[in-house]
Amino acid sequence: MTEKMLGKIVNVYLGLGGYQDNCLGIHFTFESVKDKWGVSFTKSFWDINSIQCDAYTKWDEDDRRNAYADIMIYISKLLKDANVKSVDKLKNIPVEVTFENNTIKDWRILTEVL
Fold first, then answer.
1. CB 45 within 8 A of CB 24
2. What are the extents of the domains in the chain?
3. In the structure, what pLDDT confidence band is assigned to residue 34 with cuts at 50, 70 and 90?
4. Would you give the DSSP letter of residue 4?
5. Which of 6, 57, 88, 95 is most buried when burial is the number of CB atoms within 10 A of its CB?
6. pLDDT of 39-67, one tens digit each?
7. What is the rounded distance in angstroms from the CA atom of residue 12 to the CA atom of residue 103?
8. Could you count the other beta carbons within 10 Å of the beta carbon of residue 101?
């Protein structure tokens, strides 16, 4: 079952987080405006100073560089959509979060109310 719910960004930061705090990227916490839910979301990839690429990884350094580039493009779009110039200004921005079977599937900034 897919469900869309309204909320806001209550925490956002650029840095280490994700799996055992070994992923570099942008990390969010969303909460509902009225429905008493909260959920986290991250767009990140293995940190170059924490996780080594070796024969056992399913990715290589080019994959890591491409992931980092994708994260920066993602952040640029978020800043544009929210009409702000820095990540910290995304806090309290209204969002629509899409859940599928009680798991976050996607989210977007509510540009139409900004």
1. yes
2. 2-113
3. confident
4. E
5. 95
6. 999 999 999 999 999 999 999 999 999 99
7. 19
8. 8
- Mean pLDDT across 91-99: 97
Annotate 60-81 with b (16+ C-beta within 10 A) or e (fewer).
Answer: eeeebeebbeebeeebeebbee
H or E stretch at 79: helix 61-82
Q: Which residues on neighbouring strands pair with residue 16, listed in sequence order?
A: 24
Q: For residues 55 and 66, what is the distance between their CA atoms, to the nearest angstrom?
A: 19
pLDDT tops 90 at residue 35: no
CA atoms of 59 and 64, how far apart (whole Å): 7
DSSP three-state, residue 95? strand
Taking a C-beta distance cutoff of 8 angstroms, is the pair 22, 100 a contact? no
State phi, psi for 91 to the nearest 5 degrees: -60, 135
Beta strands in 18-113 (DSSP E): 23-32, 38-46, 94-100, 103-109
